[in-house]
Design goal:
By secondary structure, the chain is an alpha+beta fold. It has three helices and nine strands. The chain has one domain: Beta Barrel (Cathepsin D, subunit A, domain 1), CATH 2.40.70.10. The chain has a six-stranded mixed beta barrel with strand order 1-2-7-3-6-5. It has a two-stranded antiparallel sheet with strand order 8-9.
């Protein structure tokens, strides 16, 4: 089994709200497109400090996390990052990591995007059961 990466776009949700209100222009919304390591064993989105700064995201708090090597760290969190993959999008919190990959896409945004990991081809794909867009459960 190999490693899977996906090209995603991260967007500052606060900037989007400010643009909707006419406080900033659409072209002032901070966003970044990058290659993310896809890891369904991680809980949520993980970004590094450089990406946090590029998006202008303010730390909202800190949470304990266990990393792949088994160690526990107290890391900053940022709220409401929009994640876009192809024609799908979702919003989630992100952990800010001082080391590790630039960006790691975990289970919560994977579920929110309604995408699956195609292990045979080592890529992220829209859920074949919902090809016309995500289907969310509300039960």
């Amino acid at each position: 089994m190999g490693v899977t990466y996906a090209e995603i776009t991260l967007i500052n949700v606060v900037d989007k709200a400010l643009a909707r209100r006419g406080i900033i222009r659409e072209d002032e919304i901070r966003k970044i497109t990058l290659s993310a390591l896809v890891d369904s064993g991680a809980n949520t989105l993980v970004i590094n400090k450089r990406i946090q700064d590029a998006l202008g995201l303010t730390a909202d708090g800190k949470k304990n996390v266990r990393t792949a090597d088994g160690s526990i760290h107290f890391v900053p969190t940022v709220l409401s990052v929009e994640v876009r993959f192809q024609d799908r999008f979702t919003s989630c919190e992100a952990f800010v990591s001082e080391n590790g990959p630039d960006c790691l896409l975990g289970a919560i945004p994977i579920e929110g995007l309604d995408v699956v990991i195609d292990l045979n081809n080592q890529k992220l794909i829209p859920n074949p059961e919902h090809p016309d867009g995500p289907l969310y459960l509300m039960m």
